[in-house]
Amino acid sequence: MSTAFLITMGVFVASMVIGVPIWVSILLASFPYFIMEEVPISAVTSVMVSGQITSFILLAFPLFSLAGTFMNSGNISRRIFDFANVNVGWMRGGLGQVNIVASLLFAGMSGSAIADISGLGRVELKGMREKGYDMEFSTGITLASSVLGPIIPPSTPMILYSVSSGVSVLSLFVGGFIPGLLIAAALMIRVYLIAKKRSYPVEKPPTLREHLKSWRDVSLSLLTPVIILAGMFAGIVTPTEAAAVAVIYSFLLGVFVYREMSWRRVWLDIRESAIFCTNTYAIIATSMVLSFIMTRENVGNALVHLVQAWELPRLAVIYMLLFIVLILGCFIEVSAMIILILPIIMPIVDAVDFSPLAFGVIFVLTSVLGILTPPFGLGLFVGAEISGLDFNRTFRAVLPFAPPLVIVIILMTIFPGIVTFLPELLLGV
Fold this sequence. Notes:
By secondary structure, the chain is mainly alpha-helical. It is 76% helix and 0% strand.
């Protein structure tokens, strides 16, 4: 590796440490390399407007983000919470179990952990506070269950993974089902054990009439993921077109059916989604410059040769990569993580012959754990804001629910068929 490359990486890391936005850090770091290697500076702009940034599939990212924002504003989170409360609120752990099931259902609409925390999380914490649950327990399970957002389809991080890795979006969506259910089951067992130890009260089971009413109130909302996936399975729509359908459907529900969204709210939601996605697109564009530099320096092949020279077992290599992802996730947002890190580690995944489909779901889940990890975990900041706890208490509240999530990651790594079974069965991939 050249001196110019080492200087570039030094400037990049230093810029991020002092709080410079990631996309600005990349640009600042790339200029010394282009100058020292005598590459025309004009190449920066040409690299930025080529490759992933022009991908049609990538359009699904802002569209699914907007659909999730509409779902939050359309009071659908309240309907989902009430539905989950009727159907599982009678179990040991009560609203803790409701919290998990509500997040599981909401994940099929928002595709984002932060959307789950900021939207559904407010409803969940309010309901648990009113029922007398302590705020640490309530906050901990709210944040832990939010990781279901990017695992259950549709998932915006998986769209970015697809663009970066070439793995089919639909296979990633389908591959997330079983892991998502495993995560929910593991968290529900954990809630049960905590509730039993603390002698939390158990509610009486609902009547048949209450069951039927809960299904009626939420049925239109639950159709969202069904419409998306059915259209993709049938080949009627592409992932991007499915995302557009999700936007239209969530808009119609919020404005004309439930009548919870004003036209001003619609405009604010569009503006909010645009700002969020603009930052992600800036990272994608500038990451093309960093990818160009790394390709020119042959970084990917150098790392592959290094791993092969060590002769480590496949699982050891994957766990090492996931550990690096988890550490970086403490500092870098999930979308940026996928765009920046994947081009470096995918050659290693291929070299050890690990399924890129299975690795995609495992990678996304591990990355999302970063939002619940200090010092810069965005989920912890949002959780602290809506719960009223300070940052340290919020982090301590999440810790009891970390083991179930780690166990699921370990199981998926040892048995990648947990991810690949459904895509192979339904899609033949």
